[in-house]
Automatic annotation (TrEMBL):
It comes from Gossypium stocksii. It comes from the Eukaryota. InterPro entries: Endo/exonu/phosph_ase_sf. Gene3D superfamilies: Endonuclease/exonuclease/phosphatase (3.60.10.10). This is Endonuclease/exonuclease/phosphatase domain-containing protein.
Amino acid sequence: MEGCLAVDAKGKSGGLVMMWKEGNKVDIQTYSSNHINTMIQAENEKVIRFMGFYENTDPNKRHLSWDMLKRVRRTVKETWIIGGDFNAILDNAKKDGGRRKPLALMKEFREIVEKLSMVDLKTNNGGSRGQIIGRD
């Protein structure tokens, strides 16, 4: 890998890493224990914004991440892709085992997805627990 940014975990949660191959221009915009916000340009391609994201598992702190996403959204003019673990689901049909999520948490997540004009992109691998949400 040509480049790498690693953000340490806080306690037993969080911790992010982003790596990229030679030939891709990556400009790190901002980062924290819950996100890495970048501008990426692959060879001969247009610039996109990619954000690696890890949502706080404490429901009382989630609004901080949602607020950060809303602030970034106001500046976005390019295609924006967010990939990672939102620790949230849009509906219980996406839940694989375990207890069902409270309706209030799903409603809150649906509202932020709608407010950011994002869509849930489907992946072919089926094994990923992270969600990818994009906006063009």
